[in-house]
Structures are given as C-alpha cells and as structure tokens.
Design goal:
Blueprint: E1 4-12, E2 15-23, E3 27-33, E4 36-43, H1 48-59, E5 68-75, E6 78-86, H2 88-93, H3 95-99, H4 113-123, E7 133-134, H5 135-143, H6 150-155, E8 159-164, E9 170-176, H7 179-192, E10 201-204, H8 210-218, E11 223-226, H9 232-240, E12 244-248, E13 254-258, E14 263-264
Parallel strand pairs: 3-6, 7-14, 10-11, 11-12
Antiparallel strand pairs: 1-2, 3-4, 5-6, 8-9, 8-10, 12-13
Helix pairs in contact: 1-7, 1-8, 4-9, 7-8, 8-9
Length: 265
Amino acid sequence: MNPSSFSATHWHQNATQGRELSLISEEPLSIRVDGHPYSVVMRTPGNETAHAAGFCLGEGIVDSPDDIASIGFCDGQDTNTVTITLSPQRRKAAAAFTDRRFYVSQTSCGLCGKQLVEELYQDIHPIQDDIHLPLAPTLRRLEALGDHQPLRAETRAAHAAALYDQNLDLLTVAEDVGRHNALDKAVGELFLKKCLSEAKLLILSSRISYELVQKAARARIPIILGMSRPTELAVTLADQLNMTLACLAGGGGLFIFTHPQRLHP
C-alpha cells in the first residue's frame, strides 16, 4: 500500500509554511489458526501471508512449512484477515498454543526476566551454527540498511529487517510500522519458500529486544546486528542461545555483546 499524503504546518525559526507529507499506513491484521482467532497485530499493509507465517513460526505454532496445510485470506476482498490451517499432525502438537495463548512471547505474561529466559531456553534450543563473517563487510551491510528502506525514505516512520546469507548476499528485506512485524514478514517470506536455512545474518533498524532475539532463534539465525543497543534481557537470552548480538557503536564500528567468535577481522 502506498503512503498517503497529509497536510501539515512546518514551523522553523519563527516562520510557518504549509507542507504535504507522506505518512505510513497502519491497519489491523487478524491472524486465524484452524478457524479460530489467534491474534490481531497492527501493521503496515503488504506481505500478509508471509507476515502470518513468520508470526506463527516465532510463536511456536509451526516448525516447518510442511506444518501448514493452507494459508490465505479469509475473503478475497479482505486483506486484513489471514487464516492458517495446520496439518493434522501439527494440529495436535500445537494445541497448547492455539487453545490458550500462554506462549512467553507475550510481554504481559508477568514473568521476571530470569524466569522468562529460563522458559524460552527450554522451548528454543541453542543455535549450533559456527558460521564466521568478516567484520568490515558485515558492518557495511548494517550501515547501508537505509538503502533498502524506500518506505522509510518517504515516510520517516518504517522499521526494517534484512536477512543475508553466508556470503553476505541480501536474501530479503521487509519494512513495516512495527519492528516485530518487519521481522515476521522477512522470516515468513523465506520460510514459505523453504529457504530460511540460508539466512545467517539479521540486520534490524531498531533496538534489539528479547522478542526479536526469540523470533530470530526460532528462525535459527545465528547473528543479529541492530542500529541501537540491545536490552539487558536480549543479551542474556542471546548468550544462553549461543547467538551473536551486536549493534552500531556511536563512534564507529560495532559493539559485540555475545559470542564474538562468529565475527572476525
């Protein structure tokens, strides 16, 4: 969906003038699983099926594309509702998630940080990937993220998630008003194409929260770079799950918080 144009008054140095500005779109997306409502997320319209697939992978509802029997819009005219039908085998395994939404990805679960990491650690196995990436070219991918953000360039309000392979070739990039949504869209696109295992590096336009680490861990992506510093809980979780976490350093270069062996000069 193209951004909409709105009128605004620009005040600068005690002078005002009229301006036309592009604003990013934000609409609800209802995700239904096996015919039942599961979640409603606010997102930028576009890539709905990939968004729903990536979301369900992050939530633990599916582990493989083969767990999805079908995915699509509930109504050909209604792009704000996506329904996922699970395979018979997966339906039984995922019952705990679909019958009652207790999965710890919900930030209102009331658990303390230590409990949260412990529960996530039990649900998500540490990543064993021993890939190594050269530091300088990897940093350049982070610094150049804006080159892949046309929506941000127009609206100044979009987050992005970009996925790269072991050769630092761009696999996909997604933009959205929400940072979690952008990651779900990028992961979901590769997941549905059955090539998610090629993703080795995730670059985020935002700070790195524990939810984003969790989603990346579910996608088995070993390295995450963000524009802003991670939270303490994100670092703790990444360390437990054997993931490399780094962010842009204010004076240049990278701050590497966990498992630096994957990034070498």
